[in-house]
Every structure is written in C-alpha cells, then in structure tokens.
Amino acid sequence: MEIKDIKYSKIKEILNAIFNPNDPYKSRLDTISHLINDINEIFSIAHYDGHIDKNFINNLKKEFPTSRNFKQKHNIDSRLAAITDDKTLAEFLHDLKCDDKMDLQTKRAIYLQILCVNRPINTTSVKWDYIDFQKEIWLIPANQMKMGYSHQIALSSYAIKILKEQQNFCILDNGFVFAAFNKQNHLHKDSLNKVIINLNNQKYKGKITAHGFRATFCTICSQNKATLLQMGISDEVIETALAHKESNAVKFAYERDRATNEQLKRLMQWYGDYLNNLEPFPF
C-alpha cells in the first residue's frame, strides 16, 4: 500500500488482533510497543519527505495500556524473574554445568553474565579491547552503557578463567569476545534467555532471566550485608558493581567514584566464591 493510503483505524485493527487482554502473562503489550515505535520511524520519514501531511502513529500508544500498568492492574510482579534462594540457584548452576546440548560459547556467556552481573547486552557485545587481563579489569565505554558513563568491572578469578577459555576457542576474529555470524557480529542478547528457558526441559521458564541475575546478586549481597561490611564493602560498592546511577542529581553531578578498585575486586571475588560454594564451577 501507498503510505498515504494507510489509515489509523487499519493499524489499530492489526494491533488489536495482537493484543491478548485475557492473559496478563501473555498480553503482548511489549511487542505492540516495539511495533508502534518501528512503524512510527517509517511514518516519520514519510512525513519529513512530504509523502504524508501528518504522522499519527504516536497516538496509537494511547489505545493500549503499558505493560507495566497492565501487570499492576492484574497484581503481577512486573520485575524480571530472578532466583533469590540458594537452593534453586545451586540447582540452576548444576543444571547449567551438566547441560551437554548448549552451545559452549553461549554457556560461557551465561557464566560471565552470572559472575559479572552486567546488563545482558553488555555481556554479549563485549570486545577483547575492553578486557585487561593484567589488571583484571573489564572497562565498558560510556557509549555502551545505559547510564551514559563508562563502567569498570573487577574480574574475579572465575571470570578470568571463563574469558581465557573463550579466547582459546573463539571461532571468529572480529574483535568481539562472543563473535557470531550475524549483522551485529556478536552473540545476540536474547540468546541467553532462550537457552535459559530451554535448560533442563524448561525447568526455569518464568523463574529466571539473564537480566535477573543482577537481582540475584543484589539479593545475596543484602542477605550477607554484615559479612560484606566487615570486608569494607558498603551499599555504594554494591551499587557501583551493578552500574546503578546515583539517584541524587546534585550528588551524581559531583561524585566520580563511589568505590575503589580494591573494594570491587574483593566484592566480585567474594561473590564468585559464594556461587562456587553452592555448586562448583566446571572451570
């Protein structure tokens, strides 16, 4: 169809067919939101080029509730699924270790995600240039970070082993740690969730996500706060490890470092040891 002939009501009809209001767990509202954004980009170009007089696509957002509001209305926890108890976490680590069907590169990426508590996109798109094996540091540039400034990760001995193992078996040499034959040239972030869902006959479907391991880390740190304080690790150090932005705007404007490299190193090594005690790593 010519874009000038596409009517608001027609697009709304198509999106209504996608919306599932009867199952709050499968509403597809996130998909609808993504579709509206994609369609809006096309209509914006047509508007700027003079093919249409008005871009009405953004108004479609008013036709549907947000995913968060829809879940709240149905009393559903809108937070990403995460394991927060040691027993289930130990089971997951055991099942991950014993899985012999999973692509080994993807398995290493999951282990790195668990150990370094990054956002999944930062894990899958990491480049070898970001890794300093000598200083045991992973530095993510500002333009790769959600909050807009660079983030430094202290690598535990376990994370170092994973990276060196991946270095030995890396198939492609395109600069990415988890190189792949796709348009991004690296492992897609959704690949982590797909293999997690399928692990051990979908045992963990709805119970954990790749991003949820950040919540796992935060919960374990909270449960062991007394131990961490004795090690000189405060809440600020934990927040720094998670790359959370300071909520106080004035403090954020002036503050540069909330934790030393040594504190971060102690924290991430302690966390790696904690997980290894639950279920020994295979490396």
TrEMBL record:
InterPro entries: DNA_brk_join_enz, Integrase-like_cat_sf, Integrase_catalytic, Integrase_recombinase_N, Phage_Integrase. The keyword Ribonucleoprotein does not apply. Belongs to the 'phage' integrase family. The keyword Zinc does not apply. Keywords: DNA integration, DNA recombination, DNA-binding. Gene3D superfamilies: 1.10.150.130, Intergrase catalytic core. The lineage of its organism: Bacteria, Pseudomonadati, Campylobacterota, Epsilonproteobacteria, Campylobacterales. This is Site-specific integrase. Coiled coil: none annotated. Residues 78-269 form the Tyr recombinase domain.
